[in-house]
């Protein structure tokens, strides 16, 4: 069990409260490693949290009312220049064109819904360099 020097933050952004709850349930064991889980239900709130809390990882839905996950990702990576923040798009948008758009706006990872909780946990622990 490896403790983190600085408590990393993960921001979970999805307009579907059920998906947010599932992602939290999947990742809550990481709180034992000092990880702080933050949530937002839309892109505008996500950007406010990203600017103030500077999470290490943002798990971001693509299809949300108002600002899409693609727009949030583009703003974080290319407008604000926060390249060190890792963005994982977690979305039902499974077409190759969607993946390419995710890459073009700077997404670091792309996982499609429905997702395997083990896969999500494995990717997140790899990103944060946590050994379970």
The run of helices and strands is EHEHEHEHEH
The total count of strands amounts to 5
Average pLDDT confidence is 93
Q: Largest sheet, order of strands side by side?
A: 2-1-3-4-5
Helix fraction by DSSP (H/I, runs of at least 4): 40-55%
Q: From the helix content, strand content and strand pairing, which structural class follows?
A: alpha/beta
Cα shape = globular
* Count of runs of 4 or more consecutive helical residues: 5
Q: What is the rounded distance between the termini?
A: 6 Å
Please state the CA-atom Rg, rounded to the nearest Å: 14 Å
Low confidence ranges: none
What percentage of the residues does DSSP assign to strands (E)? 15-25%
Task: Describe the largest sheet.
Answer: 5 strands, parallel
Structural account:
This protein is α/β, with parallel strands linked by helices. The chain contains five helices and five strands, in the order E-H-E-H-E-H-E-H-E-H. It has helices at residues 17-27, 43-53, 69-79, 96-104, 117-128; strands spanning 9-13, 36-40, 57-60, 86-91, 109-112. A five-stranded parallel beta sheet has the order 2-1-3-4-5, with helices on both faces. Strand 3, helix 3 (69-79) and strand 4 (86-91) form a beta-alpha-beta unit. Helix 2 (43-53) packs parallel to helix 3. The termini are close together. The mean pLDDT is 93.
């Amino acid at each position: 069990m490896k403790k983190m020097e600085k408590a990393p933050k993960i921001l979970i952004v999805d307009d579907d409260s059920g998906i947010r709850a599932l992602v939290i349930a999947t990742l809550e064991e990481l709180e034992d490693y000092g990880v702080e889980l933050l949530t937002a239900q839309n892109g505008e709130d996500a950007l406010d949290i990203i600017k103030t809390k500077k999470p290490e990882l943002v798990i971001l839905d693509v299809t949300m009312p108002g600002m899409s996950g693609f727009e949030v990702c583009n703003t974080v990576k290319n407008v604000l220049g926060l390249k060190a923040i890792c963005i994982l798009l977690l979305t039902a948008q499974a077409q190759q064109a969607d993946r390419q758009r995710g890459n073009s706006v700077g997404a670091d990872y792309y996982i499609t819904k429905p997702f395997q909780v083990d896969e999500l946990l494995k990717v997140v622990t790899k990103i944060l360099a946590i050994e379970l």
